Amino acid sequence: MLTQQNKEIAREFCYQTWGKGNLAVVDELASSDFKVYYPILPETLDREGFKVWVADTHTGLPDLEFTITDAIAEGEKVAITWTARGTHKGEIKLLNLPPTFKSVSWGGISIYRIVEGKVIEEQGQEDVLGVFQQLGLIPT
Q1: Residue whose C-alpha is closest to residue 47's, from 126, 120, 110
Q2: What local confidence, expressed as pLDDT, does residue 140 receive?
Q3: What parts of the chain have a pLDDT lower than 70?
Q4: How far apart are CA 118 and CA 33, in angstroms?
Q5: Nearest to residue 17, comparing CAs of 63, 60, 53?
Q6: Are 89 and 104 contacting, i.e. CB atoms less than 8 angstroms apart?
Q7: What whole-number distance in Å separates Cα of residue 77 and Cα of residue 22?
Q8: Would residue 76 be called left, alpha or beta, if left means φ above 0 and alpha means ψ between -120 and 50 degrees?
Q9: Do the Cβ atoms of 17 and 52 come closer than 8 Å?
Q10: What is the pLDDT of residue 1?
Q11: Fewer CB within 10 A of the terminal residue: the chain, N end or C end?
Q12: Residue 12: left if φ>0, alpha if ψ -120 to 50, beta else—which one?
């Protein structure tokens, strides 16, 4: 039963943050020592840094559509695969990237670690190369 609860928490956290840009869910579902790791990030993010990144992403892609395609859980870990699409209409400060007004779509995986009902870690991989190619930042 705990594995199923962790799966539900991870799905809600992932969809509310990345899908909806709901930053309040970070305070509700993430532990105080929450950490985030993605290769694109220059450093590990804490809760506040994660909120900035999510808000920055939704500013840069205001029409972002985010879909969870699968979720697999074992113990305290939940792996979620997802797809995203949107139009780059705003600056993405984290990447120092002014708007290109180009549409992008990409996929990725986020792995959550949940302990005692709180998300304590998110780490993931996403197709950043494909995004940069679609934005015209690097050749295809």
Answers
A1: 120
A2: 84
A3: 1
A4: 10
A5: 53
A6: no
A7: 22
A8: alpha
A9: no
A10: 67
A11: N
A12: alpha
Sign of the alpha-carbon dihedral angle for 65, 33, 5, 109: positive
Tokens coding 140: 């295809």
Q: 16 and 22 in contact (C-beta within 8 Å)?
A: yes
- Stated as kind and residue range, the H or E segment containing 69 is strand 65-74
| Other beta carbons less than 10 A from residue 48's beta carbon | 11
**Model-wide pTM > 0.85:** yes
CA dist 54 and 24 (Å) reads: 11
Using alpha carbons, select from 84, 101, 114, 91 the residue that is nearest to residue 13: 114
Residue 39 burial (CB < 10 Å; 0-12/13-18/19+)?
Answer: exposed
pLDDT at 18: 97
Overall residue count recorded for the chain in this entry: 140
DSSP state of 1: -
